[in-house]
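Tokens in:
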């Protein structure tokens, strides 16, 4: 049965991409939950840990009252305005939002367009990955990396936070895939174990050194430790050779968008901007077209004939 499914997907790229689109829409719905709930879960854990530390060694009990159980699956999703539970039919990716015209079925409060946007983006990028890599282990690795980067992007935009709960497992998964599966042909994921290990180390240390050099010169922190860990994860998946391309693409994108926001929106140039989304976008582009981009640059610069 599994062999028949594998043969069918291998012989029909359109079917595989279409299935990846549907799977991506479903995963995108789950990523919306992760983006919203994970920072709240982490904040509650940090508050509880801080209260335990402050009350340790004293007779004063923790002043933090036990909160209602809150995980990625509990409680059920509900309207933030009227608290009405969202039914399965009201939670169909993209379609439900369109049918409800972006409003709660109970109280008609507006539902953010970001929910279907995340679902649609995840679906489209998943189909793109499936079409690009074809059926097999490289596509599975690329899908996993794509989904994690979408979740990290959403969380960093909202909270300027790249949780260890995602970045560190993502890095270890890249290293494990390199060791277990070995290098894929044609520059696909995963890379060799050697390139993955060097990539993880180089990714973390390079931004760590930039961070401390910037802090030494300016007295300010230019980025967070989550950026180091995300870059290490990208290095584990993509290998060390693509890291310069990732950092150049992310820095250029960040600079252009930062200038546009200052010029068009009057954004305070001293206000912090999350760097994770630019790293994520650059990492995804490098995953898909890294070798072609490098080859094109070398030809334009005359370093390759």
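Residues out:
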């Amino acid at each position: 049965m599994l062999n028949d499914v594998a043969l069918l997907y291998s012989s029909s790229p359109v079917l595989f991409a279409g299935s990846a689109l549907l799977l991506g829409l479903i995963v995108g719905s789950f990523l919306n939950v992760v983006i919203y709930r994970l920072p709240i879960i982490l904040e509650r854990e940090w508050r509880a840990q801080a209260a335990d530390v402050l009350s340790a060694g004293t007779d004063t009990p923790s002043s933090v009252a036990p909160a209602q159980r809150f995980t990625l699956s509990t409680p059920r999703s509900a309207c933030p305005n009227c608290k009405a539970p969202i039914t399965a039919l009201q939670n169909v990716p993209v379609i439900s939002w369109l049918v409800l015209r972006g409003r709660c079925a109970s109280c008609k409060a507006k539902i953010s367009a970001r929910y279907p946007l995340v679902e649609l983006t995840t679906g489209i990028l998943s189909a793109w990955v499936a079409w690009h890599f074809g059926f097999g282990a490289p596509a599975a690795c690329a899908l996993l990396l794509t989904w994690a980067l979408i979740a990290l992007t959403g969380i960093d935009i909202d909270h300027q936070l790249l949780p260890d709960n995602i970045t560190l497992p993502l890095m270890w998964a890249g290293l494990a895939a390199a060791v277990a599966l070995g290098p894929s042909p044609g520059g696909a994921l995963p890379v060799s174990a050697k390139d993955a290990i060097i990539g993880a180390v180089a990714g973390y240390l390079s931004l760590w050194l930039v961070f401390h050099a910037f802090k030494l010169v300016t007295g300010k922190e230019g980025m967070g430790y989550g950026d180091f860990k995300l870059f290490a994860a990208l290095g584990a998946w993509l290998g060390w050779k693509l890291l310069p391309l990732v950092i150049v693409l992310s820095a250029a994108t960040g600079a252009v968008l930062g200038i546009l926001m200052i010029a068009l929106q009057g954004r305070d140039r001293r206000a912090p901007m999350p760097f994770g989304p630019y790293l994520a976008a650059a990492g995804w582009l490098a995953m898909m077209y890294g070798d072609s981009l490098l080859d094109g640059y070398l030809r334009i610069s005359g370093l390759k004939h």
